UniProtKB/TrEMBL annotation:
One of its GO terms (molecular function) is D-ribitol-5-phosphate cytidylyltransferase activity. Coiled coil: none annotated. SUPFAM superfamilies: Nucleotide-diphospho-sugar transferases. The keyword Transferase applies. The keyword Iron-sulfur does not apply. It comes from the Eukaryota. One of its GO terms (cellular component) is cytosol. Pfam families: IspD. GO terms for biological process: isoprenoid biosynthetic process; protein O-linked glycosylation via mannose. This is 2-C-methyl-D-erythritol 4-phosphate cytidylyltransferase-like protein. Keywords: Nucleotidyltransferase, Transferase.
């Protein structure tokens, strides 16, 4: 779970995965297995998910297999009413669920009984002896790393858990192995996605935060003029954020993107703007619920134009913009640049490198 610098709680990792599953039409019921039901319920309320009829919060057990079994037993209560055919087992510490991979896993499980994602091993696996010396090593190319989500026909997985020994429930970790051992079914193995990775160590938190920012940042650039600066800005951003849209003119007259909202809005302009008018414009454009920025890039038509503006005026305008946009609860970044080709390129490449850092 992350906490932002202003003390406001950010989304716990499991919420990202939960939101993704909730947004998928064919997902009928979710059994959320946790070790603290009260705290989890409070978190669901905080992020507007407590009223979802799809989610049941279930108390887990002391081992992985026992916790999965508890979740399955909860789903079994809804087996008839929800017409459950395929069940998906997922680790909540994998916050990203690639939809194309999930669809392939579910289709394969419906056809053959079970399916799971795998990726090649990047390290050799060794077996140490009791004396801490090497007993054996595996041929790396003959094995693969197993990941989640894994998909199973519901009755097959329930049958496998019904036949589990106490030792398996206490020590086992692989659901695919259970259906192989107890149901004689060989699960389909599907090449995993690069987006599907597990937060295990503290350093992984920094990676997941950066990835979340990329995936959740939708940028709209509003400008009254086409220019090289606009092209440079678009090129700098398009591979760094989820989406980039360019609006020529005012947002209210030009934004016809099926009601899509953006958490980051960049205004590219040459003159001082009328903040009140833009605030009205943003009402139909900007996503207030998601963290983001309002970025002003003041593109001066010439170096002479830049020199004609005093440092005092630049500072005053920046403070005024930031104060005005407090109403939107968004951070404000003001960038002044000149339009000579070399200076412009330097400014926008620097903007690209610092974009993610500015979001914090």
């Amino acid at each position: 779970m992350f906490a932002s610098r202003n003390g406001r709680r950010k989304k716990p990792l499991f919420i990202y995965a939960l939101e993704e599953f909730l947004s998928i039409r064919y997902v009928k019921k979710i059994s959320l297995v946790v070790d603290n039901i009260e705290m989890t319920t409070d978190i669901l309320k905080e992020f507007g998910l407590a009223d979802s009829q799809k989610v049941s919060v279930v108390f887990g057990d002391k081992t992985r297999h026992r916790s999965i079994k508890a979740g399955l037993l909860e789903l079994q209560r809804h087996y008839q009413e929800s017409d459950i055919k395929v069940v998906v087992v997922h680790d909540a510490v994998r916050p990203f669920v690639p939809r194309s991979l999930l669809g392939e896993l579910v289709r394969s499980a419906a056809e053959v009984g079970a399916a799971g994602p795998v990726r090649p091993l990047v390290s050799t696996v060794v077996k140490p002896g009791n004396d801490s010396c090497l007993d054996a090593s595996l041929q790396r190319s003959a094995y693969a790393a197993s990941e989640t989500p894994q998909a199973f026909q519901f009755e097959i997985l329930m049958s496998a858990y019904a036949k589990c020994t106490e030792e398996e429930l206490d020590l086992g970790t692989e659901c695919l192995q259970l259906v192989l051992t107890h149901c004689g079914l060989r699960p389909k193995l599907i090449t995993s996605s690069d987006d599907l990775w597990k937060v295990t160590y503290n350093k992984d938190i920094y990676i997941v935060e950066a990835t979340i920012r990329e995936k959740s940042t939708d940028v709209c650039i509003i400008t009254d003029f086409e220019s090289d600066a606009l092209n440079l800005l678009e090129d700098a951003l398009k591979n760094k954020v989820a989406s980039v849209k360019i609006v020529l003119g005012t947002s209210s007259s030009k934004n016809q993107d099926n009601g899509k909202k953006y958490n980051t809005v960049i205004l590219l302009h040459r003159h001082e703007i009328q903040q009140d008018l833009h605030l009205v414009d943003f009402a139909n454009l900007i996503d207030l619920d998601k963290q983001g920025l309002i970025i002003h890039i003041i593109d001066h038509a010439s170096i002479d134009g830049m020199q004609s503006m005093s440092v005092y005026n630049l500072h005053r305008n920046s403070r005024k913009m930031a104060h005005h946009y407090e109403k939107l609860h968004k951070g404000v970044v003001v960038i002044h640049c000149v339009s000579s080709n070399e200076a412009q390129k330097h400014n926008f490449y620097e903007f690209n490198e610092n974009f993610k850092e500015s979001e914090n």
